[in-house]
């Protein structure tokens, strides 16, 4: 994997470990020569992961919609900042640039980006690994929800397992490097429920 997109909050959250792990992820990318692709801001967890990369000699590419330039405050030290017109164009560009995706803690925007990438994978539009760094159990409830979707017959188990999860960076990157996309389609037949 040469480039990984990271989706995460433009806020830092209430636990210092979120920022610590975002910085550590950036440092790990720099050490392993993985380029960061992310939302382009210098605030919150977004800024922390970018600084972790950049302060350790790595490369960071930001993709930022013009209308968020003043709200999310564009990071001025990036290797490259790509300005786009819409949120959809942002996600499309980030997908085009990356070999995989990691979600750190975040809010609605992070979840929307994560689930769009999962949906695209489910529909066969890409075969990239999609992962959650489950820092301090932040995503435990979401993981339970995906298990419930499968149990209730609304999500195939193979598609639920597309979402890679770990609470450590080395294990998460190992899972991503060894990921095999499902060979089954999205559609659930009545007889399969």
Automatic annotation (TrEMBL):
Keywords: Cytokinin biosynthesis, Hydrolase
Hydrolase keyword on record: yes
EC number(s) stated in the UniProt entry for this protein: 3.2.2.n1
Database matches in NCBIfam families: Rossman fold protein, TIGR00730 family (TIGR00730)
Family annotation (PANTHER family): LOG FAMILY PROTEIN YJL055W
Protein family membership: Belongs to the LOG family.
Name used for this protein in its record: Cytokinin riboside 5'-monophosphate phosphoribohydrolase
Species of origin: Flavobacterium frigidimaris
